[in-house]
Amino acid sequence: MDDTEVREGIMRTLEHPATGELSLDAVLAALADPVRRTIVAQLAAGHEDQACLAFDLPVSKSTSTHHFRVLREAGVIRQRRAGTAIRSTLRREDLDAGFPGLLDAVLGSTSDAASDAAPETASAG
Amino acid sequence: MDDTEVREGIMRTLEHPATGELSLDAVLAALADPVRRTIVAQLAAGHEDQACLAFDLPVSKSTSTHHFRVLREAGVIRQRRAGTAIRSTLRREDLDAGFPGLLDAVLGSTSDAASDAAPETASAG
After folding, report:
1. Alpha carbon distance B99, B91 (integer Å)
2. What is the rounded CA–CA span in Å between residue B97 and residue B62?
């Protein structure tokens, strides 16, 4: 069990920026990625407090772990350990307080995110 | 004169994404910088069609040129030559059509951008 925790490496310390200290730079950069917007959209749609692995993402586990970390460090999501899993929740209140309307505007535009995040299929550039 | 144009290098081709082809990724990434948000805020505040040099930015000319280019390539601003100057306008309609509410949300949070963009003065981290 301790082994597993060590293997999780980067996930060991779950650091979060404080409520009043979210940076707009970091939040916008975190949201500037279709996979991360998919995660946020799923959390916003009620998949709250979900284990990272339960998300349906078109990327590897390590890439997914990276994306969750970027979201957490920007203050977009909160993560906590639950046994061997990491569960995530959206920090909607903190985001709405710091950047009113931003999350809704980004989520409202997320129809394009879904297609951006999908693995390449049709539509040659 | 031709010399000046060659020296401008990167500014020679003023490419813009088409109206319906703005990428949310690119727009969010472009806005994830306090200097670029200052440019956008000044354009939104009525300093439309202004030469790049007329902006009051706490960065060098070449850094400023870079920031304008990122904004243009993301479709946030439109740039055109006016003699030897480059003039910029905000693509508000295109942004509002593609990402309703996003620009206003970002600009509404821009009070923090102003302080972020200022040269270091007080407030040790």
Report:
1. 12
2. 31
Contact by Cβ (8 Å): A77, A68:
yes
> Along chain A (125 residues), what's the average pLDDT of each consecutive run of 10 residues?
48 82 96 95 81 77 92 96 88 96 90 42 36
Could you tell me if B109 and A98 are in contact, meaning their C-beta atoms sit under 8 angstroms apart? Answer: yes
Q: Which of A25, A34, A116 sits opposite B33 (nearest CB)?
A: A25
Interface contacts A/B by beta carbons within 8 Å: 78
Residues 6+ apart with CB under 8 A from B55: B38, B39, B42, B47, B64
3-state secondary structure of A51: strand
- Residue A37 with chain B: CB contacts under 8 Å: 24
Contact call for A24 and B109, based on CB within 8 A? yes
The structure tokens listed for B43 are: 């354009």
Interface TM-score (ipTM) > 0.90: no
Looking at CA atoms only, how far is residue B11 from chain A in angstroms?
A: 25
The pTM of the full predicted model, rounded to 2 decimals, is 0.78
Measured in angstroms, the CA of A117 and the nearest CA of chain B are apart by: 11
